[in-house]
Amino acid sequence: MSLKEREKEFKKQVILEAASRLFSNRPFEAVTMDEIAREVGCGKGTIYLHFENKDHILTYIISGELGNLCSDIEEQCLNNPDLVDAINNYLGLQFRFFRGYNQILSSWVRRRLQDNVKEEWMDNIHNKLKKKLEMAVSVFERGHREKKLIPVDSYELARLLEAIFQDATFPFVDERSWHYDPDRIVSLMKLILTNGIMQAV
Fold it and tell me: Within a 13 Å sphere around the CA of 165, how many CA atoms are in the beta-carbon half?
């Protein structure tokens, strides 16, 4: 990669980080391109050299975070010799991803439903979602081979767990109504998902 290309990628990453901070703390629709430019410390025109609009920026943020999550799953789950630890890591990573980016993810889903996200921007996201699912399936298939998981379809199990964590994190936007400890919640979810809630009798 040439120096010019590295500089371009660096500027793009600075824009994405600034926008992510803003989108995490305020409704997406309330954040303007001018505010992103001020946060970055550049002119608005510089942002348009890299991104078409806010929706383009938001899609890049989602794609980047999905890439980070895939790398973490590969390192902490696929390459983990301890199956139980690998599954616990997977559950924790899923929880923290959906919990950490729930506002950004909900904004992106809403914008997509409103047809504001171009399909041409979606290739990277589709590929990363597919990779994430297949890595989870690989861990669960290993569990079946080692006879440590119940004999169910690994794809169905992966999709179900994805839905559970996605749905379970969104109600936590208002944490003032109860004493919320993310680590305690994810520990409880791991316990329930791996052991159930009934005592052995």
Answer: 25
